[in-house]
Amino acid sequence: xxxxxxxxxxxxxxxxxxxxxxxxxxxxxxxxxxxxxxxxxxxxxxxxxxxxxxxxxxxxxxxxxxxxxxxxxxxxxxxxxxxxxxxxxxxxxxxxxxxxxxxxxxxxxxxxxxxxxxxxxxxxxxxxxxxxxxxxxxxxxxxxxxxxxxxxxxxxxxxxxxxxxxxxxxxxxxxxxxxxxxxxxxxxxxxxxxxxxxxxxxxxxxxx
Amino acid sequence: xxxxxxxxxxxxxxxxxxxxxxxxxxxxxxxxxxxxxxxxxxxxxxxxxxxxxxxxxxxxxxxxxxxxxxxxxxxxxxxxxxxxxxxxxxxxxxxxxxxxxxxxxxxxxxxxxxxxxxxxxxxx
Lengths: 208, 124
Ligand SMILES: Nc1nc2c(ncn2[C@@H]2O[C@H](COP(=O)(O)OP(=O)(O)O)[C@@H](O)[C@H]2O)c(=O)[nH]1
Ligand SMILES: [Mg+2]
Ligand SMILES: [Zn+2]
Fold this sequence. Notes:
The structure holds two protein chains of two kinds.
Chain A: E1 7-14, H1 21-25, H2 37-41, E2 43-52, E3 55-62, H3 75-78, E4 83-89, H4 93-97, H5 99-109, E5 115-121, H6 133-143, E6 146-149, H7 158-180, H8 200-205
Parallel strand pairs in A: 1-3, 1-4, 4-5, 5-6
Antiparallel strand pairs in A: 2-3
Chain B: E1 13-14, E2 17-18, E3 21-23, E4 30-32, E5 38-47, E6 61-70, E7 79-82, E8 89-92, E9 102-104, E10 111-114, E11 119-121
Bound molecules: guanosine-5'-diphosphate, magnesium ion and zinc ion (ZN).
Residues 24, 26-27, 29, 93, 95-96, 98 of chain B line the site of zinc ion.
């Protein structure tokens, strides 16, 4: 069967327990669906397809199985990850302080060039805010990564955040492809159809 | 959603594949593009889409016999994959999370979408 997408990116959500990672990935549900079979067993990952400048990008987004509670997120979970959302809760100072520990954990376990982004969740809870937006921005600058405040509850900036991370991974990937294959420069743009064959990096990265 | 009346899958199939796109019956989220699933007739029971809130009762299952077979999860446009339960994983809508709309193997490769549990868009 022909390949139906241009890129496949594996993304993870990391951060303290309770910051809202599961809600960012899944629907924020407090309604009737809570009683379904599915919400009882939980969701492992989602496939999302986005269109970016005419390219079809599949995102495979994983939730933890709650291992973060025991800080036992290991190499196996990080394997093949190309992007990581580092999530804290703006009403919980501790979850913000722990971001640097999570970054260390990522450095020890994930691939060195994994793209990271910092997210401050629950931003609709302004009256309970414990971490200012400026501190989030500052920390992101320190690590040279992007930052957004989001609310899984009110669907603020959630899609934008994934789109941003996906765009940055794509840029990095295309740069890498170009560097490893300089002959495919501009004059190749005339090629009629995008190749249906998976580029090598994709074969490597989709062995999940 | 679990209607038991006979329904005819033939108009939904072309060349052994799904003729139209497959969407969520509840929220219309795009699940599968036309031609990406192969028709398979086999008997599999899946847990009901809704469970009673006072869920003391046993989980009820519905026998199903018509599926779109999809070779791996990346073929889907949007889908959720549940955690494993008794050797199976279950498919859900990625947006509203209603399900199971089908099941897949533990290796996330062979997937089966229950034709009756999704909206099959066939423009005549
Ligand atoms: N107010 C508010 N609560 C949220 C938000 N996102 C998640 N929560 C709540 O935070 C708690 C933990 O969420 P969960 O997704 O399970 O966190 P996880 O442990 O990181 O997966 C739950 O009670 C959620 O309802 C949000 O954006 N706003
Ligand atoms: Mg969780
Ligand atoms: Zn839906």
